[in-house]
Amino acid sequence: MKRIFFTAGPSQYYPTVPQHLRFAIDEQIMSISHRGDEFMKIYENADSGLRRFLGIPESHKVFFFGSATEIWERITQNCIEAHSAHFVNGVFGERFAWTAKQYGKKTTVIEAPFGKGFDFVNAELPEDVEVIGLTHNESSNGVMLNMEDVHGLKDRYPEMLITLDVVSSMPYPQIDYTKVDVTYFSVQKGFGLPAGLGVAIISPQAFEKAGSLVKKGIGTGSYHSFAELEKYAQKRQTPETPNVMNLYLLGKVCKDLQNKGLETIRTETNEKAELMDSYFESHPVLKPFVDKRRDRSRTMAVVTTGGTSQKIVDALLEQGIEVGLGYGQWANKHLRIANFPAHSKEDIKHLLHALDTLSSHL
Ligand SMILES: *Cc1c(COP(=O)(O)O)cnc(C)c1O
After folding, report:
1. Which regions in the chain score pLDDT beneath 50?
2. Residue owning the nearest CA to atom 14 of ligand 1
3. Is this prediction's pTM over 0.90?
4. N or C: the chain end with fewer CB closer than 10 Å?
C-alpha cells in the first residue's frame, strides 16, 4: 500500500520529487564531478532558486551544510566568542544551547515551560550576549513563535545576532531578513526532500562576526567555516564533495514552490491548520497540546491522546497513514502531525476522516 507521511521529518516528499529524481538518474547527476561546470549550474540553481522563492536579499550569504544539527555547531564556532542566550521551551532549543556548551561557551537560558510561549517583552538579556538562539517552531511540542516577537528582539538588541531555527516551519514564516542574522533549516521537512542537506541564510553582520573572530586568532572551524564556505560559494562550489543529488532536487523544488507562490502556500497552510484546529478543539478525546492559539504551530499539529498514541499510530498505519508519536517521554501521550506544502487540503481531510473511524482505539 502506498503510504502518506504526516511525520515531522523526514516527511511526505513534495509531489514533483519523483519526476525530478527520474530525470536526475537519466542525466547521471550522481556521477558528475563537483568541480565541473555541470555541478556549478546545479549549485547556481539551488542558490538562486532559494533566493527567488524566499526573497533573500543579495547582501545575505546562502551556505549549504549536512543538516541543521551541523548548523548549530557552525553558528557556535563562527558567531560566539564567549556568550550566547537561548530561548528554550523544548528539546530542539535546548540542543543548540547544549552544542554551545560543548564548545565551552557561557550559555544563558531563558526558559518557558514545555508547550508554552515566552514572555519576550519582559525578557532581559545580559549586555555581553553575542548570539540569541530562537526556535521558530519547537517540533517537540508544537509551540510556534510570532515573527513580531522575533523582529522585536533585534530592535531591542541590535548588537546581538538573532539566529532562527526554522527547520520545521520554512517556508511558512514571514521573515524580515534585516532582523534575523542566521536563518537555518534542513530540507526533509517543509521542503519535502530527502534528508542530508542543511541551509543557512547569513546576514552581513553575522558574516562579519566570523571575520572578527578570525582576526582575533580564534578558530572558526575548518572546511565549513563561514570564510571557507564563502571562498567556494564564489566559485559556485562547496569545500567538500556535497550532496549533489539533493542540491539538484532543491533547485528544482524551489522553482515548483515558487510557481505555486509563497503567499498561496502560506494561505493554504493556514487553512489546513484551521481544519485541524477546529477538528481537535471539538474532539471528545484528542485535544491541542498548546492551549493558547497565539502560540500554536501552523505547520505541525500536536495533540494529546491520554496514553493511546501508539495504538492510534498503528491503526492509522493500516490505512496507509503515518503520523508521528510524541517526542521522547511524550511518545505515547502526544501525536505530531506535519502540515507542510507537500500535504494537500485533501490529504488533511483524509487524515481527519481516518481519525473519525478510530473511536474504538481512543
Ligand atoms: C528536525 C529538527 C532539527 C534537526 O534537524 P536535522 O536535519 O536532523 O539536523 C532541528 N530543529 C528543529 C526545530 C527540528 O524540527
Report:
1. none
2. 167
3. yes
4. N
